[in-house]
Amino acid sequence: MGNAWILVLYVAPVALKLGKGMGPASVKSTGAIVAAFSIATVLSYYYFFFNNNNSPPKRRKTHKSPIINYNNKQLKNGLIEAIGNTPLIRINSLSEATGCEILGKAEFLNPGGSVKDRVAVKIIQEALESGLLAPGGVVTEGSAGSTAISLATVAPAYGCKCHVVIPDDVAIEKSQILEALGATVERVRPVSITHRDHYVNVARRRALEANEVALKHKKTEQTDAKDVEQINGYTSNGEEQSTVFSSNCKGGYFADQFENLANFRSHYEGTGPEIWEQTDGKLHAFIAAAGTGGTVAGVSRFLKEKDSNIKCFLIDPPGSGLFNKVTRGVMYTKEEAEGRRLKNPFDTITEGIGINRVTENFKMAQFDGAFQGTDMEAVEMSRFLLKNDGLFVGSSSAMNCVGAVRVAQSIGPGHTIVTVLCDNGMRHLSKFHNAQYLSRYGLTPSAAGLEFLQVD
Prior knowledge:
The chain is built from 15 helices and twelve strands. By secondary structure, the chain is α/β, with parallel strands linked by helices.
């Protein structure tokens, strides 16, 4: 504004001359001063912009956000970049009780609430890059809950949809979350994997149906139908498919989390390296349960490649055959192999872990041994962690912590043990964290400390 006052000194005499003969003296003076200020303001306005911007002011555009190159590693570009790099936290109560440093990879802090976010991203990215999934297509999956939720969370970020098939005995809140996320949810009765209507097999069929619908729709849009033979790598077999998809469907892709090695790679390339970096390579053991086997396989293989002295273990829930596979080299006991195995062998309330077949992902794991955990131990552990550490965890996370204590007891004090906190307890309110449900199965927790694991 200093320039304005200088201009007033030049302009005022001119304004006073213009005011002569136009009225009484007081009016002349007032008019002259007002004119001087007005002219000075206008001139200083243009002086400022011409000397600082070399151009008059332009109206700011508001219809388009500017692209800003933030040089800030803490800023994440959308949901996908926020997945992974979860903190590794010291579980104080277990560490103090065992004399080991027991650390938990807090995967429940991923945007979708579980370790399966990593898997969902890797599966969709690889499918899109390979052309097996078209933009706007439908990702189908058979899941007991967490992978389905992660796919439903991640798919919209890639412009895709999600169709999930789940057993009807999983916690009801999981299907409610899926529906709230916009996924199509199909609940089926629990049956053996060899059965046509096992939830995984149904999900596989749904992907084929989506591709069949997309192929037919594409044919109707072209005059020469012979030119259209494939879509998303799928070739029609000419059979009529019953379908739940709309006519403008862009095709489907079966995520196949159990056999798709993108699952393994997500942990070999992500979770494993993060654990190594966060511990500065100074860890002695890793333990986790397995469902698909992707987490324990990816992490164990990476850590073993970095340091073969790191011990990697499996913790297995009731009804699962993986403990026998790791410790004895066979999936079943002699009696089970002779056909006496129950039709529905999963005598456990834990969800997402335990299986009676060896998946392609599990085959990639490298183990030094295995432990078995019980439902009662998992329930007691979850209440112990909540009371002593403020950690509200789900059934698989609780079982992993049971495993961590077992490892500590096995290798002795003074070691660093890492496990995975897969998800929190919010998805387990109707079963694992429901007092009435637990009472029905004789699983009401009563321990004051860790006596259920023979820890004083």
